[in-house]
Amino acid sequence: MIAILGTGKMGEALLSGLLRAGFKPGDVIATARRADRAEALRERYGVRVLSNPEAAKEAGTIILAVKPQDMASLLAEVAPHIAEDRLVISAAAGITTAFVESHLPGEVPVVRVMSNTPIRFDEAMSVISAGAYAGEEHLRRTEDLLKPVGKVLRIPESQQDAATALSGSGPAYFFYLVEAMVDAGILLGMPRAAALDMVTQSIVGAAVMLRDSGEHPVILREAVTSPGGTTIAAIAELERHSVRAAFLAAIEAARDRGRQLAEG
Ligand SMILES: NC(=O)C1=CN([C@@H]2O[C@H](COP(=O)(O)OP(=O)(O)OC[C@H]3O[C@@H](n4cnc5c(N)ncnc54)[C@H](OP(=O)(O)O)[C@@H]3O)[C@@H](O)[C@H]2O)C=CC1
Ligand SMILES: O=C(O)[C@@H]1CCC=N1
């Protein structure tokens, strides 16, 4: 039995992905803190929605999907019901396995996960790291849950805050880029809907090329950039405005914020 504690955006996306992957509604328990949310989850997915302690008591795998700021109080609520034969998976930004372990009795196996919102379309990038009491079996069980909803990579926990900044937050940077490019289309007199279509298909096409061609992004970018052409005129402006440096600084700031979240 799998329990998802705190079934919000990420928890619900994982829940629906597990059901799409063949898990039965009877295999999954959800928890929510609002009655209307609990009712919506029951209706939409046919799963049981229980209290956190009830869910923790029943499940072999317990996924913690609340915001980092809510993690300590959730752990205090469920700790008495979690034994060492369970697997606890923490999906929160910044929260270390040591933090989770220190709030649980004994030596409970904990795996830390950072996924991202494309999990809704089975295109997540999830990175996982084992805590002090988790081994190969626990990493495999975590991979079995996450592989149906995207790609999974094992990384050292020391890289988790960096991964959060890169792939956890990553989709937001691309959406921001799309917004900016659509605005540019508007500036050039393009209708908004047409601009959004053009930019969306360009980003999807570029992403598929990047994933499926096996070619380096520099080679792919150079292939678009003709000598004395239009693309280099745009790239020259991006360089003049230090866009690359802005990305380096932005992702470093996201990494640092992840570290702060761990401090509460
Ligand atoms: N959004 C993203 O892009 C990503 C988020 N994450 C991580 O995933 C986690 C969840 O994020 P996200 O899904 O966006 O956040 P949400 O706020 O959508 O989900 C968290 C849910 O937990 C519920 N909740 C809070 N406390 C409790 C409790 N004690 N018992 C039961 N339910 C509770 C909240 O209820 P209520 O609705 O009442 O607030 C909410 O529905 C975070 O830790 C975040 O760092 C990771 C990768 C990407
Ligand atoms: O912004 C956040 O804190 C979460 C974690 C990664 C993506 N969203």
**Ligands bound here?**
NADPH dihydro-nicotinamide-adenine-dinucleotide phosphate, (2S)-3,4-dihydro-2H-pyrrole-2-carboxylic acid
Which sequence of strands runs across the widest sheet? 3-2-1-4-5-6-7-8
Write down how many β-strands occur, each being a DSSP E stretch of 2 or more residues.
Answer: 8
- State the major sheet: 8 strands, mixed
State the oligomer: single chain
Q: Count of DSSP helices?
A: 12
**CATH fold field value of the largest domain:** Rossmann fold
Domain Pyrroline-5-carboxylate reductase catalytic N-terminal: 2-94
Catalytic activity: L-proline + NAD(+) = (S)-1-pyrroline-5-carboxylate + NADH + 2 H(+); L-proline + NADP(+) = (S)-1-pyrroline-5-carboxylate + NADPH + 2 H(+)
Main location: cytoplasm
Keywords: Amino-acid biosynthesis, Cytoplasm, NADP, Oxidoreductase, Proline biosynthesis
Structural notes for this entry:
The chain is of the alpha/beta class. It has two domains: 2-160, Rossmann fold (3-Layer(aba) Sandwich); 170-262, ProC C-terminal domain-like (ProC C-terminal domain-like fold). 54% of the residues lie in helices and 13% in strands. The chain is built from twelve helices and eight strands. It has helices at residues 9-20, 35-45, 52-58, 71-78, 97-102, 136-146, 160-168, 170-187, 192-213, 217-224, 230-240, 243-262, and strands at residues 2-5, 28-31, 48-49, 61-64, 87-90, 110-114, 124-130, 150-154. The chain has an eight-stranded mixed beta sheet, sandwiched between helices. α2 links the parallel β2 and β3. α7 (160-168) crosses α12 (243-262). The chain is elongated and about 65 Å long. The model has no long low-confidence stretch (mean pLDDT 97). (2S)-3,4-dihydro-2H-pyrrole-2-carboxylic acid binds at residues 93, 164, 168-169. NADPH binds at residue 52. It is found in: Cytoplasm.
